Amino acid sequence: RMQRLRERLARSGALGQTLLSILSRGDLTESDWEEIEETLLLADVGMGPTTELMETLRTRTKVLGTTDPAAVREVLRSELLALVGPELDRTLHLDPAVGDDGLAHPATVLVVGVNGTGKTTTVGKLARLLVAEDRTVVLGAADTFRAAAADQLSTWGERVGVPVVRSEREGADPAAVAFDAVRTGRESAADVVVVDTAGRLQNKAGLMDELGKIKRVMSREAPVREVLLVLDATTGQNGMRQAQVFAEVVDVTGIVLTKLDGTAKGGIVVAVQRELGVPVKLVGLGEGPDDLAPFVPEDFVDALLS
Ligand code: GDP
């Protein structure tokens, strides 16, 4: 997995390599430091974290008093790692719950985010990951606004071999489909039910109503363990602002950062966690069924620096 992440990131031109090469120049001038700052900002690390990192790098490289690449690399590695937050809890909490009826209920996962960020693809890939862990899965196509969305999810269901609950009627109540999916999961004693939603960025109140209702209705059958917000890593600050709206209307428990294979802007990991106060739990590294991986800070930083 790490090898794959490394290859993907290397192909897109890594942030860490650029920093490493500047820091190894020795006796850094003000223009070198400006270059470091620009590199961080261009990689979407964000203003606050960039300022912080600049300060610690200045101090630590001064104390270090050497330009030995290995030593500089070690400083950079530990500072980047601290920034990425190795202490954050990134586990997917998918324990089944025991209902009032004394029976085990599936863990449910709600997947939200703007259209085009890779939501449906992520749901398909997540099903694959869970199946590989020997869990039984049911998917729910609660994006009922576009018939194509349910078709796309059905295709994923066939591909990874899991049932998909959907409505044949375009414009059906998304909460009703979500409820059916969780009920089907419960009746078939599935371990996990993952529900895909529409990402229409209408007004905030509308979105809040819609996602709130879906979550409430799902909770009647089984507790919603995870609300995953999907964010496209290539969309920068604009994507962040849109993600923020979702985070304000529903309690997000984790971020899935997609299309990390197509960008050198890995710094968005830092920015999004800071701004939304939620850890990145999974990363999308391509369009295929196996291109979703748990986010491991150490692997990520090593990939940036390799
Ligand atoms: P949705 O509208 O949010 O459900 O987005 P889709 O799941 O339909 O994905 C939009 C496009 O992004 C599709 O062409 C996907 O194949 C592509 N995509 C999704 N995730 C990734 C990823 O991690 N890497 C790359 N390169 N493409 C992705």
TrEMBL record:
UniProt keyword terms in alphabetical order: Cell membrane, Cytoplasm, GTP-binding, Hydrolase, Membrane, Nucleotide-binding, Receptor, Transmembrane, Transmembrane helix
EC numbers: 3.6.5.4
Subcellular location, principal: membrane
Residues of the SRP54-type proteins GTP-binding domain: 279-292
Binding site for GTP: 113-120, 196-200, 258-261
Reaction equation(s) it catalyzes: GTP + H2O = GDP + phosphate + H(+)
Any GO CC annotation of this UniProt entry: plasma membrane
A GO BP entry: SRP-dependent cotranslational protein targeting to membrane
Lineage top rank: taxon: Bacteria
Gene Ontology MF terms in the entry: GTP binding; GTPase activity; signal recognition particle binding
Assembly and oligomerization: Part of the signal recognition particle protein translocation system, which is composed of SRP and FtsY.
Family: Belongs to the GTP-binding SRP family. FtsY subfamily.
The name this protein goes by in its record: Signal recognition particle receptor FtsY
Organism encoding this protein: Georgenia muralis
Lineage: Bacteria, Bacillati, Actinomycetota, Actinomycetes, Micrococcales
Gene responsible for this protein: ftsY
Full-length numbering of the shown residues: 81 to 386 of 386
